[in-house]
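Lab notebook: predicted structure, single chain.

Context: the supervisor wants predicted structures on file for every construct in the current expression panel, including those that have not yet been purified. This is the next one on the list. No modifications to the sequence; it matches the entry in the shared construct table.
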Amino acid sequence: MITSQQLLYKRLFDFSFSLILLLFLFIPLLLLVLFASVDTQQWGLFKQVRVGQHARLFHIYKIRTLRQAKKGQGLGAEIISPFGQFLRAHRWDELPQLFNIVFGQMSFVGPRPDLPGFADMLEGEDRVLLKVKPGLTGPASLKYAQEAQVLAQQSDPEAYNRRVIWPDKVEINKNYVQSYRFSLDLTFIYRSLSRLI
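Prediction complete. Output recorded below exactly as produced.
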């Protein structure tokens, strides 16, 4: 089981590494937000409420990838723009979460931050997931890198997620917390960075 000392070292690494990355990525990140603003005709940075460590709610930051559909495509509907698809394919839309890491709301590695109604509803030993901060990446994130495509093939995506994907993610993330080693974090970071290129 991850210890208080390991959590402290994990936080020190997260804070230091995220600051270093932001020094190099701030200008490219700002340009991506500006491009997304032009592409979606809305401010290119947005936030959503997610469940964090100890089930505390916080706002996660992302680059906007959806824009309003044109007339005839559904009133009030939103579609992923080509630029947004590019961002999602490389997960560059998640880069603003480096600020969440600096602010101490997230970690580089951990369970992905879920919408209310999932992680905050965990019971029993499953609540061990809430001992760590949600991550920019993690073992379950890497396994389900193509989750959107898998769900799109289901007749009832929401039911499939709750019945199959979500329980599997819980088990994967429980194993991560219960058998935590810092070397695992480095492995998951390396595997995730290789997907950004």
